[in-house]
Amino acid sequence: MTSLRVLGSSGLSVHPLALGANVFGWTADEAQSFAVLDAYTEGGGNFVDTADAYSKWAPGNSGGESETIIGKWLTGRGNRADVVIATKVGAHPRYEGLAASTIKAGAEESLRRLGTDYIDLYYTHFDDLTVPVEEIVTALDQLVRDGKVRAVGASNITPARLQESLDFADREGLAKYVALQPHYNLVSRDTYEGALQDTASRAGLAAVPYFALAAGFLTGKYRPGRSVDSARAAGAGKHLETERGRKVLAALDRIAQEHDAEIATVALAWLAARPTVAAPIASARTVEQLPALLAVAELELTDAQITELTAASA
User: Fold this and answer.
1) Is the predicted pLDDT of residue 1 greater than 70, yes or no?
2) What does the alpha-carbon distance between residue 217 and residue 274 come to, in Å, rounded to a whole number?
3) pTM of the full predicted structure?
4) Cβ(133)–Cβ(168) below 8 Å
5) Is the pLDDT reported for residue 302 higher than 90?
6) CB contact set of 144 (below 8 Å; sequence gap of 6+)
7) Element (H, E) at 13
8) What is the band of 79 on the pLDDT scale with cuts at 50, 70, 90?
9) CA-based nearest residue to 40, from 85, 102, 93, 91
10) What is d(CA 186, CA 167) in angstroms, rounded to the nearest whole number?
11) Residue 108: which residues within 8 A CB-CB, separation 6 or more?
């Protein structure tokens, strides 16, 4: 039985692999998405990460497609109480920014698409510097008081604004951030380590990193001279051109062999073992991609292996 991790001070218990739903309604159609969600939950997973903006970038989409698919799946399976649903506000084309009215309206739309009366974890997707933290925190607190949101988090925020938000919530006795969603992985450490991680650590926030597999680079499928058919190939492939990228791949290869594990599993296990991290996020377009992701729950790296990966990625 996979041991769940507590998400900061939220009281929510989550699987150590959050399933990223950014591909639903983009590279995975409804049937594929249902199959992935079924396989993820059958494999012990219970933490699904989406956003109201997913997947607005796909041709013909307007945002909200991922939430709509998840909502249909939850209704069809009748398992709402068993799944921790995280979504985000602030980047949907009709609900951009973090004005109080936008947060409120965005939440109502997310609830409607998800077919539920509460969101377990609600993130601000991108900080909005035109809105004072007092307004943002107060609006989020109101959603918690109304029972529409169980816990709140932040993504893409500076250490200073995060601290300011936490301080205001403390002072006023309002719901405060329990989770942080940073960009963080073996080839992108400075996007979290340092002041942001220190702020999260002091406040007891749980980190739920996105791009945990560097858009697929850390699965090991990108190699010199090999072309990959993926919507994200251009972004992921660029890591091959860096010394860090090549050193990380070499270390991942060695350690994966030692454990007879997939390279993706090792990359996620390093992340899951980092200070403050509760559950890395990784998405699966097909059911076949899931076992390597879910296996992070069972793979424990040795101290020496963690040190090797940390040195390779420095």
Assistant:
1) no
2) 19
3) 0.96
4) yes
5) yes
6) 150, 151, 152, 175
7) strand 13-14
8) very high
9) 85
10) 31
11) none
Write down the number of H helices and E strands in the chain.
Answer: 11, 12
pLDDT exceeds cutoff 70 at 233: no
Q: What angle do CA 213, 214, 220 make, to 5 degrees?
A: 65
Query: How many C-beta atoms surround the C-beta of residue 41 within 10 A?
Result: 18
**3-state SS class at 95:** strand
pLDDT for residue 170 is more than 90:
yes
Matching residue, tokens 């919507």: 231
User: What 8-state DSSP symbol labels residue 18?
Assistant: E
Name residue, tokens 């004005």.
Answer: 99
Residues with catalytic function = 54
Q: What are phi and psi of 119, to 5 degrees?
A: -110, 130
Residue 224 pLDDT:
79
Which distant-in-sequence residues (6+ apart) come within 8 Å of 70 by Cβ? 21, 24, 33, 37, 48, 50, 85, 114
> CA-to-CA distance for 158 and 173, rounded, in angstroms?
22
Q: What is the pLDDT of residues 114-153, one digit of tens each?
A: 999 999 999 999 999 999 999 999 999 999 999 999 999 9
CA angle 236, 199, 187 (to 5 degrees): 15
CA 5 to chain centroid, in Å, comes to: 15
- E-strand ranges in 132-255 read 149-155, 179-181, 206-207
